[in-house]
Amino acid sequence: QVQLVESGGGLVQAGGSLRLSCAASGRTFSSYAMGWFRQAPGKEREFVAAIGRSGGTYYADSVKGRFTISRDNAKNTVYLQMNSLKLEDTAAYYCAASIWVGVIRTQSGYDYWGQGTQVTVSS
Asked: Are strands 10-13 and 117-122 parallel, antiparallel or unpaired?
């Protein structure tokens, strides 16, 4: 089992940047595929980005070219670098861990979830 704790959220102006971090407990972090999801008020939670065990990545079209997911297995941490933020990026951001092989894009493919960190983009 793994516990996930997100950090790095906050208030930022449109066009700005934030880096989210997700620290995982346990000694087998490298064996998990990781992902980021977000949920805006009144909307369903949606996929943002994912990274596999070997470093392969996949992004939602809405963030491609602006967001970068990465992982540091030595630190048991996955990151989401968010640049050129837009108003529509405002949401609670969640990281998730999956025991499955590959780059996991669906919520049902994840086994463990963090509590989330709020990102608010202002004009």
From this structure: parallel
Model confidence at 27: pLDDT above 80 = no
| 83: number of Cβ within 10 Å | 14
Tens of pLDDT, residues 68-115 = 999 999 999 999 999 999 999 999 999 999 999 899 999 999 999 999
**Residue 69 burial by Cβ neighbours in a 10 Å radius (0-12, 13-18, 19+):** buried
**Interacting residues of 61 by C-beta distance below 8 A, sequence separation 6+:** none
